[in-house]
Amino acid sequence: MQDQRSRKKTRITSLDIAHRAGVSQATVSRVLAGSPLVNAETRRRVEQAVRELNYKVDRHASSLRTQRAGTLALLLFEDPTQDDSHINPFFLSMLGSITRACARHGHDLLVSFQQLSDDWHADYEDSMKADGLILLGYGDYLAYESKLARLVEQGTHFVRWGQVEQGQPGISIGCDNLAGGALAGRHLVERGRRRVAFLGDASSRFPEFFARYQGCDAALREAGLAMLPELQVDADSTEQAGVDAANALLARGLPFDAVFAASDLIAIGAMHALKQAGLRIPEDVAVVGFDGTSMACYANPPLTTVVQDTSKAGELLVQTLLQLVREQPAQSVMLQPVLEVRASSGG
Amino acid sequence: MQDQRSRKKTRITSLDIAHRAGVSQATVSRVLAGSPLVNAETRRRVEQAVRELNYKVDRHASSLRTQRAGTLALLLFEDPTQDDSHINPFFLSMLGSITRACARHGHDLLVSFQQLSDDWHADYEDSMKADGLILLGYGDYLAYESKLARLVEQGTHFVRWGQVEQGQPGISIGCDNLAGGALAGRHLVERGRRRVAFLGDASSRFPEFFARYQGCDAALREAGLAMLPELQVDADSTEQAGVDAANALLARGLPFDAVFAASDLIAIGAMHALKQAGLRIPEDVAVVGFDGTSMACYANPPLTTVVQDTSKAGELLVQTLLQLVREQPAQSVMLQPVLEVRASSGG
DNA sequence: CTGAAAGCGCTTACAG
DNA sequence: CTGAAAGCGCTTACAG
C-alpha cells in the first residue's frame, strides 16, 4: 500500500497499474491518453491506481512509439558575449514568456545557447529531442539566412523571432520595428527635437535595428526633417556598446538634441556616457530606447522606450510552432509595439 | 546519394547506417557509443555512413533502453511575479551559466518556471524526462523545506541553489552569504558609516537574506557598532519592493547613513526612492547591493555590490547534480563572494 | 468497451 | 572484434 515510498528501486510501469486496477495494460494506456473509449467505472479504477502508485507515463517509451517528443527547443544565439552576467534582458524576458507558453500548451522546453557560427542546424529535431525549434537572438542576418534556408530544406519545424520581411526562409514572428521606430521619431518631433542621433547598427545585416532607424526617419520626414547619417553610430545591444557609441558620437562634435537607441541596453549605456560628458537628460538631449525592459523604468532618468509585448510574443511563437509541427498552415506575424513615455524624453 | 535531402519523410535509423556500412546494427550502435571494441576500419566506414546520411541517434529509443535521459531539468521558482519582464536578472544569469555547464557536460536542459505552491515534486524524474533537478529561486524557505524532504524521501536526484546550512534535506550549493554580508558591513564601516539600514527580509523564512543581514551585523560589531532592527525593512527582490522599502524607511524618520540592500534590484529601487527624496548618494547615504548583476554597473550612481560568481555556481550545480545521478558522493558547497566597489558607497 | 500483439529504435549481455 | 536476439515501456490498429 505504501510501496510508493520505496526509494524508487523499480520503476512503476503501466503494467503495475493494470494489475492493480484489474485491467489490461492497453486500457491503462487508453485512460492516460484520455481516450473516450473507456467505461467510466474502468477509468475511475485505473485513475485511482495511478494516484496510489504515483505513476507517470515514461516519456521516452511514449515518444518512441508516437514519434512525437512533446518538447520544443529554444535556441538562443549570442554573438560575442560569453559572459553569463550580460545576457540581454529582452531575450531573457522572452525566455520567460516562452517557457510559460510551452507549459500552457503542455510541452516541455529545452533551452540551449548557441553561437551563430555553430553547426546546430536541425540537430534537435533529427535526434527527436524536440518537435520544433524556436530561434531567438541577434547576429549578422546575412550569415543567419543561409542557415534558415537549410532548415527549410531539411523540413525542420521552426519559428524565428526577428524582423519580418518578404521572401524570408521559413516563418518569423517579430515586432513591427518600422512602426516602433516611427513611434519614437514622432514623439521626439513632438517634443521639438530636430537632430536625432541613432545608436545601433543600421544595415541589412541587422534588419531589426535597421527598420527602427528607417521608421524613425520616416516619422521625421513627415515633419520635414530626416535622420542624418553623420549622427548614426554602430552598436550592438550591450550597455558597454551604448557607452562607446555615445562617446564616439560626442567625439564627432556635431550638434544633436536627441538620441534614439536601438535597444534599452544601448540607451542606458548612452545615458551614462552623456551624463558623464556633462549633458543633461532630457534638457540637452532627449533619449528614447527600445524593448521595454524593466530596467528602463529604473534608469536615471527613467527611460522612454518602445515596448515590445514579450508575453504575447512568446505565446505566438509557441502557438505558431505547434501549428507547423501539426502540419497546419501558419504565417509570419508582426506585433505592434507601444511607446512608454518617461522622463528621459521630457516626460 | 543525396537522399538526406528528401524532406525527412522516413527517419534514418541505425539499420540504414548498418546496411550502408555493411555491418550489423549492433556495431553501428557500438561505434556511436564510442565503444573501444570496434576495429578502426569498421569504425571509419560506419562514421562515414553516419555523416553521409546525417544520422542522429534517436534519443527516446536510447533513453528507453538505457534508462537515462541525458537531460537535466531546471526548475525556477518565482513567488508572485507573473510578469515576464520582471524576472530576476540574477537568476537569469544563473540560467545562462547552467545552460552552458550542461552543454559542456553533454546534457540537455529542460527549463520550467514553477510556483512554489505547485505540486511539482519529482514529476520530471518520475516521467524520465530528466535524470535530475536543479532548483533555483527565492520563496519562503519554510514552505520549501518540506518539499525538499519529500524529494529526498523519493530518492530524487536534485541540487538546490540557496543558503547552505547544517541539517538541510538534500544538497545545496550557495553563496557564503554571511561572508558576503560581512564584506558589505566592513566596507561601510571603513567608509565611516555608522547607521546601516537593511532592505530585505531578515528572517529564517529567507535564509539567504537573513545571512547577509547577520554577516553585516557581525562586521559592524567588530567595529563596536551593530545593525539596528529599527532600520530593517522587509522587501523581496524587485525594484518596486526596493522603492517601497526605502520609502517606508524614510517614513520612520530615523537617521541612517548607509543602506545595505539584500539584492541589486532592491538597491536600485532604493536609490531611485532616496534620490527622489532629495538625498545624495553617496554623500548622504552610501548604498551597497548584492548579486553583482550587470545593471549595478550602469546604475546611477554605479552601485557597489557583493558579487556572486554565477559562472562558477552554474558549473558546480551541474557537476554536483551529475555526481548524484551517477550515485557518486557529493556535498554541499559555499562559494565565496567578492566586493565590487563603485560610486554608490563613495567609490 | 476491452485485450492480445506488434513494433517504435535503440543497447547490451551472450555467443562466437 | 562482430552478429543475433532480447527487451526497455509504451501506443494503437486489429479482433472481438
From TrEMBL, chains A, B:
Pfam families, A to Z: LacI, Peripla_BP_3
Keyword field contains Chaperone: no
Keywords, ordered alphabetically: DNA-binding, Transcription, Transcription regulation
Residues of the HTH lacI-type domain: 12-66
UniProt xrefs under InterPro entries: HTH_LacI, LacI/GalR-like_sensor, Lambda_DNA-bd_dom_sf, Peripla_BP_I
A single GO molecular function term of this UniProt record: transcription cis-regulatory region binding
PANTHER family referenced in this protein's UniProt entry, alphabetically: ALANINE RACEMASE, LACI-RELATED TRANSCRIPTIONAL REPRESSOR
The protein, known as: LacI family DNA-binding transcriptional regulator
Lineage: Bacteria, Pseudomonadati, Pseudomonadota, Gammaproteobacteria, Lysobacterales
